[in-house]
Write a structure and sequence with these properties.
Blueprint (H helix, E strand, L loop, with lengths): L15 H52 L9 E5 L4 E5 L6 E6 L89
Antiparallel strand pairs: 1-2, 2-3
């Protein structure tokens, strides 16, 4: 009789040597898988950082296109415009007025340029030192020498600032009669 052949499946139980070999294969494949996952994470985080950088740049450009401007910092020229009562900030490169602000009360005061003769420590036209100036000894003159003399009828003590309690009247003789807070009339009593 002749033997017939057929392919079938069955359970083969490992011998201790086969089991040890499969254990070694399992450990090797598991380590390879962990290494590939770590490599994938590193590459993913690297690409994620690149993608995030591009997304940030996209967001910034989208905002700038939408708003039609960007904020820049420059060293601008600042000039008073008394006609329009504004500060003008001028771009030194283009000469363009890039920003304006209203002048405050203090800003509205004109700057009076002094000539060389009016500046402290200056000499007169004949190059002689100003009277009272002792520059040889390194002593500068008293600043009061450069203040203008009082006009006739002007009080010796100039008026103090309002609100200090020491206000002078126009003649400089005493406390000025300044209007105080308005007094309220008492309400009439009902009978």
């Amino acid at each position: 009789m002749s033997d017939l052949r057929e392919t079938i499946t069955y359970r083969h139980y490992y011998t201790p040597e086969e089991h040890s070999e499969k254990s070694q294969q399992l450990a090797t494949v598991n380590i390879q898988k962990v290494e590939l996952e770590d490599e994938k994470k590193a590459i993913t985080s690297e690409y994620k950082a690149k993608i995030d950088a591009h997304q940030s740049q996209l967001n910034l450009l989208s905002r700038q296109v939408h708003d039609r401007f960007e904020t820049r910092t420059i060293l601008a020229v600042k000039r008073k415009n008394f006609t329009d009562r504004i500060w003008e900030y001028i771009n030194p490169d283009s000469g363009e007025i890039i920003k304006t602000e209203p002048l405050t009360g203090r800003d509205l005061q004109y700057d009076v340029p002094l000539s060389d003769e009016e500046l402290p420590g200056a000499t007169s036209q004949d190059d002689s030192p100003i009277e009272g100036e002792d520059l040889e000894n390194g002593v500068e003159p008293d600043a009061t020498e450069y203040l203008p003399a009082l006009l006739p009828g002007q009080p010796e003590d100039p008026p103090k600032l309002l609100g200090t309690g020491e206000e002078r009247d126009d003649a400089g003789t005493g406390t000025a009669d300044l209007p105080g807070p308005k007094k309220r009339r008492p309400k009439p009593k009902k009978p």
